[in-house]
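In this supplementary section we document a worked example of the pipeline. Step one takes a protein sequence of length 613 as its only input; no multiple sequence alignment statistics are reported here. Step two produces a three-dimensional model, which step three serialises into structure tokens for compact storage. The input and output of this example are shown verbatim.
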Amino acid sequence: MRATKEVMAGPSSVKSIIDVFSARVAKAGASTAARHKVAGAWVDVAWSELDARRRRVAAGLIGLDVQPGDRVAIIGATRIDWMVADLGVGSAGATSVPIYHSNLPDEVQFIADNAGVVVAFADGKSQVAKFKQVRARLPNLRKVITLDGAPGDGDWVMSLADLEKQGEARLATNAGEVEARIAATASDDVATILYTSGTTGVPKGVMLTHDAFVFGGESIESRAVIATDDSVLLFLPLAHSFAQLIKAAWFRLGYPIAFCESPDSLLAYVAESRPSVLPSVPRIFEKIYNKVVSDGMSKPGIAGALFRMAMGEFENYAKAMEKGQAYSSLPFTLAKKLVFPKIHAALLEKLGGRMRVFISGGAPLSRKIALFFQICGFVICEGYGLTETTAVTSINPPPPGKIKIGTVGPAFPGIDVRIATDGEILLRGRCIMKGYYKLPEATAEAIDAEGWFHTGDIGEVDTEGYIRITDRKKDLLKTSNGKYIAPSALENALKANPLISQVVIHGDNRKFVSALVTVAEDTAKKIAKDKNVTYADYAELTTKPEIRAAVQEAMDRLNATLPSYEAVKKFAILPKDFTQESGELTPTLKVKRKVCNERYKTVLDGFYAGDVV
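The serialised model returned by step three reads:
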């Protein structure tokens, strides 16, 4: 049994997240802190090596005249050099400004200019090129430092290796300079400015203090979500608060962490690094579920028949659970003995054989998919947090704690929760942001005079303190008939179908609800093969009547469970899936609703031409 610990409600005696890191180095020293791939092979990195590198980087930054409180940007993939840069920034007393590696040059320019960035770390030629493209609009940016080993240009760009060499030389003549910067850091100083991903408008810089991150690490320990003897694979972008929380817990608990630079390589990295904990966004669980179901349903013979029987029973079970009812049958009992354990064994092997806990955050997890993982013998701890709360609010505790699927668990100790009269969730505690950078009016709107942060999420708290999120306040749709619709609930229900990849529910100020749909290519291809449908490419495949009929069937099943005003009356299948590169997805794979509504406005308007339905 993993012991839980209480978290201090007031400021910690530890002033900064760098202090937490230093304490870990003193305790762990030569033990493995991280693993990463170099030339195709896994390499272990000790805490002491990380410590030496961050000191050199900090001294190098001081040599570049980076002052306490200066903003330093970091853009790149999830890799160990990103973390070294981040530690160096904090150890120099400066503030890190992480930028998503998928951001376009104009977006990079906006963030760097808004934050007043003086130095930037960039991972790879493509990221350096973004700064070069907008250099004329960044007069305060004095230097760009490459993280991938590429050499500098003798002018504006220098390599991380050269920065470390300069830092090492400076340490030889300025002993104690870095420690003095760390000692002067206060718990209320801004450690990081995270810019919101901009799903609904212009990104805002969220100022998170050192104490907020210290509290985050304490919170993860208090709920025993991750333990010192675990190992974690991190693929989440380090510009996201969820990844920053995992970093804070890493320093606090000292578990080894493996870095995965690309979500596209995730399953291969998981199989090789064999983690016991995987923090993830729901999209990954959706993809795993869809792959398992699609492969199983297409199996021939007895194995296929058993799988299809098991999934039919699972559908009945999921429907009963949604209504708060129990479900049992002889076929379901057989499925739990013969089918679901085999799914668990096969999937566990693909995941390296040691997976203990999945952590889901960043967006709502479909209840049906959570139930599927549970019945297959996996633990998913769904949590809740926002950038403005340092990703810390609540989480379902892993066994022996009680997991309530459909909730995001009870709040962490030290966090106060209140439900406003309109259903909005309000939060207060050490995790709350200091404010939006250079936006005092927006800060005052988000944090009231009593210190309550207004989350913008609608929800409720049950008698055991478990929080249930029903939707985003701003995302709620109101039809022209005055009925409110929670789009994410409908979207998640539809995405539980293996054929459906992404959904955007539409209907604000309209007479009925409609949807934009993209289909999962692998599943669509299997349907086409079974029905002898020929096609040239994915775009043509989406136009086939057989694919539309399968999507219509999914819509009909959902609509049968909904009141008429909430039913999806019309939908369109788009000729391509959403991607980050095309601008429809955030770096954490959430759909940018506003972008999609604007990009496909003609399609959406067409649904309502004449308002026939």
